[in-house]
Design goal:
The protein has 345 residues and is α+β, with helices and mostly antiparallel strands. It has 2 domains: 2-140 and 240-304, Antithrombin, Chain I, domain 2, CATH 3.30.497; 142-238 and 308-340, Alpha-1-antitrypsin, domain 1, CATH 2.30.39.10. Helix content is 25%, strand content 40%. Strands 1, 5, 6, 7, 8, 9, 13, 14 and 15 form a 9-stranded mixed sheet that branches. Strand 6 and strand 7 form a beta hairpin.
Length: 345
Amino acid sequence: MFISPLSISLALSMTYNGASGETQSAMARTLEVQGIAISEVNNFNRILQKSLLSNDKGTEISIANSLWANKDFSLEQSFVDNTKTYYQAKLSNLDFSDRNAPTIINDWVKQITKGKISKIIEETNSSTTIILVNAIYFKSGWRKPFNKSNTKPKPFTLDDGTKIQHPAMSHNSFYLYFDTPEFQAIKIPYRSTRFSMDIFLPKPTSNLTKFQEQLKAKNWQVWSDKFEKREVFVQLPRFKIEYGIDLINTLQKMGMQIAFSPAADFRNLSSEKAFINEVNHKTFVEVNEQGTEAAAVTSVGMTRGLNLPEPESAQMIIDRPFFFTISDQQTGTILFMGAIKNPSK
């Protein structure tokens, strides 16, 4: 599993600009922006994107948004203006009954993600009204690259107890680190030190499922305050993931059911009836001795409706399933998050 909370949030936030009534309320609850004016939500996202794109030397980030509307589907000008002003979203009109329409959108995605994600839209038809797409690309070297000569096949224990051999990188350095009876955690900085990979490794007496049950905002804040600089020997498997998911079921469970039904109210998007019929999310990440390359794309498709170093050193041998994020330390934004159960797949 590997997703981009940032990509999903930006795609849904653009869509939120078109919602009204109970649909708007349901989306506000899902996005956790109840009681916040939509202008404030938009302005926050504008500032966040601008901050992330002012990346330091050694880190490459692209964030791009786009709107693809069926040629005969009319959009409210205020919706077009808001998505352009706050999300720099480019509007394009396509004939969705043309079988080449998905190729045009997918080519845009491929360009933004440097070829790492080549397809997000499988097909369109005459009932497709608008597709909103967010694409994110991240590439950065480690602040201290791993020495390739230290990479060796090492055992990795899967959830069912099976052991496999997989290339693991290793080195010793000072990192932000902390240890609890349930898990170990480490921040491995990228060349631009505002970004890091944060790895959480459940202890052998625990497991990934138990750790993920603790993934709540209040715990996350407590954990963030516990990291301290310490000398750590770290062993990390190389891995590469391509992941895709339709988020409709997840979003429905989070309270957005109405947005996916003909009862949806998107009058701020168009005077014509429309509802969401797909939310596709695809990601890519590759982690090796030099650094990390990651990409994510989220599409929302709509259809007509009807501190001081410690003297003691530590070891963190990542040889079993673990959770990780790629985060911006400056804003606290999680660009990507995922779980590795088998680094060879």
